[in-house]
Amino acid sequence: MKTISFRKTALLLSATLLPLLVSAQDKATLAVSSIKPTPALAASVNSKTVVESHVAGVNGGAKDETLVLDTKQELNRIIESLDGQLIDRINVTRKFEVVGRSDLSDVMKEQELGASGNVDAKTAAQGGKLAGAKYLLVATVDDFQDYFERAVFEGTGRSATKRVFRFSIVGKIYDSTGKLLESANFQTGNDAFKQIQQERNYSVNNGQLSDEMMVALSRSMAEQIANHLADVIFPAKVITKRDALVTINRGEGGGVAVGDLFNVFALGEELIDPDTKESLGREEVKVGKVKISEVNPKVSKAEVLEDTGIVAGAVLRKIK
Description:
- About 30% of the residues lie in helices and about 40% in strands.
- Residues about 5-25 and about 55-60 have low confidence and may be disordered.
- The N and C termini lie far apart (about 65 Å).
- It has helices spanning about 5-25, 40-45, 70-90, 100-110, 120-130, 190-200, 210-235, and strands at about 30, 35, 50-55, 60-70, 95-100, 135-155, 160-175, 180-190, 205, 210, 240, 245-250, 260-270, 280-295, 300-305, 315-320.
- The longest helix is centred in the last third of the chain and has 23 residues, at about 210-235.
- The chain folds into 2 domains: about 30-235, Rossmann fold (3-Layer(aba) Sandwich), CATH 3.40.50; about 240-320, Thrombin, subunit H (Beta Barrel).
- It is of the alpha+beta class and about 325 residues long.
- The strands form 4 sheets. Strands 1, 2, 5, 6, 7 and 8 form a 6-stranded mixed β-sheet that branches.
């Protein structure tokens, strides 16, 4: 039997693991706080709401239906699901290495700022330092509504019940110095609620959302936050250009879909605020427009619609 020396074995292992280590080092380290509702929202959410609804019967008549909404339970389940879904969606972007969440939670709890989302520069820097992260994401639920409105049509004696659903999160991104890089509001409402329910055929039992429905809502919101996070820190860029086709560094789970339109910008010189001397980023000059034609696991292809100087490294901004 042939034997392999310890030295050769070590070299083989190094050659195997080195690409993985380099890949991990190239990713930005990110700490993500646990998602919580603001204290005011947590206090305002009712435990249960009972609604009498008039719905169409089997023979075209009307019947009464009692709908019971346990909004406090719904909110807790959505947040619980979103907490895990957000980490998953961030990983899918392939841009970040999520680290040190337990240390970060302790910092937020100690400062009593995790629930309010009012993290100052000192706390953000401390949280990122203890977690060993370059960036910090703090997400706070600031609005949640799920109730039924009943409208009575005068002169007909008929009535209709409409469901109103609204869910909102404020996301804040800090760097390791505690500087706030971005603050954005992410919302989902009736339209998204209906679309998810219809497209995925998730049930609503007696007015109460099923676990599958709440997970679907959480995943949709997590995708919004993760893709925005990636766009702020690592904007989509052109990797290569061949004739009228470009390859960009966004794939499945990266917030791109066939048919999406992007403006393309060349990066110019760094912009410095004359008063604060703070860097405002680099100048961006529009040099074209592209349309996504193919989405692959790690990259996407786009058809060039306009071109006045598109080259590798150019930044893409989605046209909404």
